[in-house]
Amino acid sequence: MANYSTDNDLLAYEPDILNHLPNTDPPTTTFDAQHAESKRVIDEVILTRLPEWLRWKIRDGEKTMNDVVDEADLKTVSVLHTLFLIFNWLSTTEGDIFEVKSVRYKRLFDEKLTSLSFDISSDENADEFEDESETGGVEIFRA
């Protein structure tokens, strides 16, 4: 499955971010590895907070994360986490600009992650909902 964000999404937050691509041979041209790691972390966190029946539907491929969480919200949390990863990697000294940015994006990521809304409807029309379920601090908004 594709990542939730791309390098173009990062540019909206950090216009010069591509100047920080690792210097490798052959040249690294994207932050795809960081986007993929962000997707993995986000999926793991969200899955642990969903009702068990819904986790199984996602794992079995009956539903996708985009069926449960708004695509724009997934993109936003992915961008924030990816920027956290990049700046955390770039930081070499406590208190340098990269650490400051890393801490900022991690805080923003945590805030956005806790305010995600989930569609946990039990029917295809989203008219009926399962009983309240614990989500580990994640708010569930029902439309």
Supply database-style keywords.
143 residues; mainly alpha; 6 helices; 51% helix; 0% strand; elongated; disordered C terminus
How is this structure best described in words?
The protein is mainly alpha-helical. It has one domain (32-143). 51% of the residues lie in helices and 0% in strands. The chain contains six helices and no strands. α2 (32-49) crosses α5 (71-90). The protein is elongated and about 45 Å long. The two termini are 27 Å apart.
Topology:
Layout: H1 7-11, H2 32-49, H3 52-59, H4 65-68, H5 71-90, H6 97-114
Short description:
By secondary structure, the protein is an all-alpha fold. Helices cover 51% and strands 0% of the residues. Helix 5 (71-90) packs antiparallel against helix 6 (97-114).
Question: What is the distance, rounded to the nearest whole angstrom, between the alpha carbons of the first and last residues?
Answer: 27 Å
Q: Can you count the helices?
A: 6
Number of domains: 1
Class from helix and strand fractions: mainly alpha
Mean pLDDT: 86
Number of strands: 0
Quaternary structure annotation:
single chain
Estimate the helix proportion, in percent. 40-55%
Order of helices and strands: HHHHHH
Rg, please? Answer: 17 Å
Shape designation:
elongated
Low-confidence stretches: 125-136, 139-143
Give the percentage of residues in beta strands: under 5%
**Largest sheet report:** none
